[in-house]
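Supplementary notes for students who missed Thursday's class. We covered one full example, reproduced here. Read the sequence, then the structure, then the short commentary at the end.
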Amino acid sequence: MDRESLLKDIALLDEVESSIKLIKLGLGELQNIMPANNFYYLPFQLLSSGFERFMKCYICLAFQNEEGVFPSYKYLKNIGHDLLKLLAEINVKYFTVDNRPILSEDKFFLVDDELIELLGILSEFGKMARYYNLDVITGNAQNGINPKDEWQKFESEILEIHPHLYKKLMNFEDSHEVFSLISTYIIKIFERFMAAFSRQWMFGFIGERAKQLSLSLFDFGMIYEKNLGITDYRKITTKYQQTPKSAYKRTSKDEFDRNFNKNFKSKKILKTEYQSEWPFYSDEIIIECRYKHWCIVSIEGYDYALNGSAKGRYKLDNPYEGGVSIPGKPFTDFIKITLEL
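Structure (token representation):
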């Protein structure tokens, strides 16, 4: 391999890895959106850049596989920053379906209305809407859409599908559940999108070079219906890493109180025994009600607050804040179970 080809391969590998890191960070920042944090600009910036870079890398590899050379600068420049144009280019020219049903499902999903709507918002943000506020200030007549408004309209449509969540949204104690469900709904769409493209790399449909570079895409490529939306991407974000965690390591005194204090009622619950959708990563938990009021859940030797009164009394994170519950899967039903002990 000559020096120029080697440099191109190194640059391509770096760009692929960078795009995946941007996308995962963007998904993590979506999961960080909560009542106290509505800073959408960061996930918009990360996801619009990550998806654009990823699809351009895809096109470079697919083009090289067919033509023997990488596409010219002009080829990609003509597509520009438009995510929907990039998607259409791939879907029409560089997406292969064989006798595996999952690939037909992947291709069908690439024209999904909700995917197109979300990518359209991110595309407008990447092209011009990231300066929407400055354009309004300076009187730019072509200031495009307000990406935050359009995104929140999409979120409102999700709430319409789940009308019972409006009530939870008005209750601060339950509002985190609503935000988690919304972000999970959107993340499932993006994971499905990334899985469809990643499998093209992993199965060798866009060439051996792409297959060799597919290690970075393995997490997405192995996502199927049953494990959509369960990854906690927050853990790689700076905000999550730097936020002090308030999980409490249980002591022998805590165990003594649980077993002998008549005002402490507890019960072990196994995933296999629970009839509804299990919301925790761990397959077993212990719930505990103290003085008929404070609801605690113990997971792998640590305590978390199930209800707001326990959170205030013991200064504990709830399971979602502590990263021990699955995003988008509510755990509030366990409050009722605990109070009934």
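Commentary. The radius of gyration is 23 Å. The mean pLDDT is 89. If anything here is unclear, bring it to office hours.
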